[in-house]
Amino acid sequence: MTTVSLTVNGQPVTADVDPRTLLVQFLRENLRLTGTHVGCDTSQCGACVVHLNGQAVKSCTILAVQAHASVVTTIEGIAGGGELHPMQAAFREHHGLQCGYCTPGMIMSAIDIVNRKGNALDEQTIRAELEGNLCRCTGYHNIVKAVAAGAQAMAQAPLQQAAE
Amino acid sequence: MTASGIGAPVRRKEDQRFVTGQGRYVDDFNRPGQAYAYFLRSPHAHAAIRSIDTSPAMIMPGVVAVFTGDDLAADKIGGLICGWMIHSKDGSPMKAGPHPALAQGKVRYVGDHVAVVIAETLAQAKDAAEAILVDYDVLPAVVDTAQATKAPVQVHDVSPDNTVFNWHLGNKEETQAAFARAKHVTKIDLINNRLVPNPIEPRAAVGEYDFGTDNYTLYTTSQNPHVARLVLSAFIGVAPEHKLRVIAPDVGGGFGSKIFIYAEETVCVWAAKKVRRPVKWTSDRSEAFLSDAHGRDHVTHAEMATDENGRILGLRVHTTANLGAYLSTFSSSVPTYLYAPLLSGQYDIPAIYCEVDGVYTNTAPVDAYRGAGRPEATFVVERLVEKAARELGKDPAEFRRANYITQFPHTTPVIMTYDTGDYAASLDKALEVADYRNFQQRKQESARNGKLRGIGFSSYIEACGIAPSQAVGSLGAGVGLWESAEVRVNPTGSVEVLTGSHSHGQGHETTFAQLVSDRLGISIDQVSIVHGDTDKVQFGMGTYGSRSGAVGMSAIAKAIDKVIAKGKKVAAHVLEASEGDIEFKDGRFGVAGTDRSLAFGEVALQAYIAHKFSGQDLEPGLKEGAFYDPTNFTFPAGVHICEVEIDPDTGVTKIERWTAVDDFGVIINPMIVEGQVHGGIAQGVGQALLEGTVYDQSGQLITASFNDYCMPRAIDLPSFQVGMTVTPCPSNPLGIKGCGEAGAIAAPPAVINAITDALGHEDIAMPATPQAVWRAAQKARTLLAAE
Fold first, then answer.
1. B452: Cβ–Cβ under 8 A, 6 or more apart, which residues?
2. Which CATH architecture has domain B298-467+632-786?
3. What is the pTM of this model?
4. pLDDT reported for residue B1
5. What is the rounded CA–CA span in Å between residue B419 and residue B428?
6. ipTM for the complex?
7. Hey, of A78, A99, A135, which one would you mutate to test binding to chain B, going by the most B CBs within 10 A of its CB?
8. Does B482-628 match B31-139+202-252+258-291 at the fold level?
9. Which of A91, B83, B247, B480 could form a disulfide with A146 if both were Cys (CB 3.0 to 4.6 A apart)?
10. A33 contacts B21? CB cut-off 8 A
11. Which of B675, B712, B743 sits opposite A98 (nearest CB)?
12. Between A28, A44, A138, which is nearest B678 by CB?
């Protein structure tokens, strides 16, 4: 067993883990943060995307021990003070989800896209940037709309962005 | 229309938990003391098992138990079943081979279940599974649909030539006569490619047994928990029905693949009692590819006869349907009664004859996948119609229009009676939205840029609202296909609706609440929809075949009517009026012609405190249940138009425009309905352009991960233009037809018709990958040069 210490959604956590434990397993099984999902075993689907030190990563692709001394944000950690994050609100408003399984990863990727590409995102940029996230329900039509709207809303909500 | 009633684009109630990561899917459930199951699967497509030695695994760290098929047999656990009996032309019943949950003596496909290891951790279970010694006598395998009956391989003893059934529908003689007088016959050979459903949530199960009460609980990723309970108890014999609770919580997509009762769920609930601990299994994606029931996989030859005026006279179809290595839960119905009855499409075709040979192969079982039989039928009809129009030199839209059914009800030669529709209205609207009149200009513009542009139509029909129980019973179904609901009004006036439908993305918590809000005049926030738990919901048949609106909501509407009727009785006592004078309007019970009235919530309270009436006159309480059995199938229909541009140098097909005009009858929530259309189209485009399931000749699944099986990504798809026309369905009280499968049914022929239009020849199969399209484009160049 190996000891890992990191900050998850603003809380410091320390645990002894089997060295082969993936970050997603650590989040789901040790911390019971089950909003981060597993949809494949080849790092294709993106249901497990979280932010590691502010950048989107597929948490099925790194070991928990690699996240030692890092700051991790999951889907459970982005809404502030009872208010949805603007990207969460945009997914709801634009019906950017159906079964909800890919949604946490989609939202975490979408926020990362905005962080990298800015708040004015055109359709082709969004579609290309969602390369690493699979959805089987929506045909992406409303996800694209949600990401564009969420990106704009994030410009209007700088405080929440900073908090993230 | 109120802000939250029928027809309003209400934002979904369930989304708050999904966007915040608070959804609860099966893998999110952990029971105290649980152990983990891992299944040892066959690496061979076909082999006799000489022996299994589990003893090396038993001594591995953390191992709790290892079980094989012998252990299930010793406990008299029955095999998995197929619940729809198909009879061959000669009257003989289909040949159903044994389907044990864990192999007994033989494995029949790669991924077949050989043994289960239960251990303290999943990693330990996996490690131990590697230590099991299985001595296989590897046998030759058959994987190819068209070769199944000719191969020197016998998948099941009951079927020497691998035939499950030789079934037919329609009138052979009349169809022959129609072809005899035809001016023109259009012929086509089609392969409807095998697909892997791939909901993003893999299947999972947690089995639990309570020794104190003798109660079993199964948490499972199911679209129909009550059907799972019935099959697990009545047929497989895992537990008595009244002692088995099946819970299907949030489920991450199904598309048909979570209808079925599989080996893993069966084993988890059985093993929980054996090891005296909860047993959890979660599929990984590779296992899902291997063992989830696949979809489609037809090989078809079809011919269409037309007269000198371009009227369709007849259709004859021969299909070989690959059912895989075992008959899955509803597999036999998919290429038969969910397929051939749709071969009339939207067209007035006087004579149709269809033969279907169901065959076994050494591949994963094939069962219902979004559309289930109807996409296969639509692909046949719409490819044939398009090809016929081209051969006859007619505009494909006008050729369709000239053959549309225009009078309703219309009985087809293949047992369906279409109740209503206006196909020309959908076509007109679609042509306008697609800007069809300027297509040639766009095609010329593409040609100037060295690109090939094509347009493809799909005038689809489907039979949904499955289904009248008597009708399906006469066709071989082992169950009735009603739905049940209970509307429970609380003393405070809030309402819980217990429904046998199951939501795994469809948004029932919102749309069903909209119906209640509309009918009872209360806010949707006052309504809770309860589903997915056999201990809470009395009965149900579940969600598939676009039935939750037409059938599930009709049951709710029926129960609401009973609640209102009972409410009137209560109100009559409270208001001291005669029951016949009580009206219910805008959420109030009032005395006709007076200003005396009570709010719905006041009547609810009076029903429970029961101070104003004697219990002998009227039972206290306000809770009503209903079963709704459909009177007919429903017939959603529409027109999809796909416009593509092909780069002949790379073979890349880009979808430039997608127009969908659908008639789903009455729509409860247009936002959700459009979302269903989008998702369906994406799956249909996936089938047409990207997704192909490949087994090699030895039966190894080559496409067993998202690396190898091309799922549609955002960049592969356009935004869609979605429009609606409405002819209310006369066959149910709400006028709903259903919308869940339309896109997946309509899309594949629209794409292929567009590609073949662009190429100028018909020789392209699905999936039309860049490589396939590039080859076809080179052939087109050769053909052009030869002219």
1. B446, B645, B646, B648, B758, B759, B777, B780
2. 2-Layer Sandwich (3.30)
3. 0.97
4. 56
5. 21
6. 0.97
7. A99
8. no
9. A91
10. yes
11. B675
12. A138
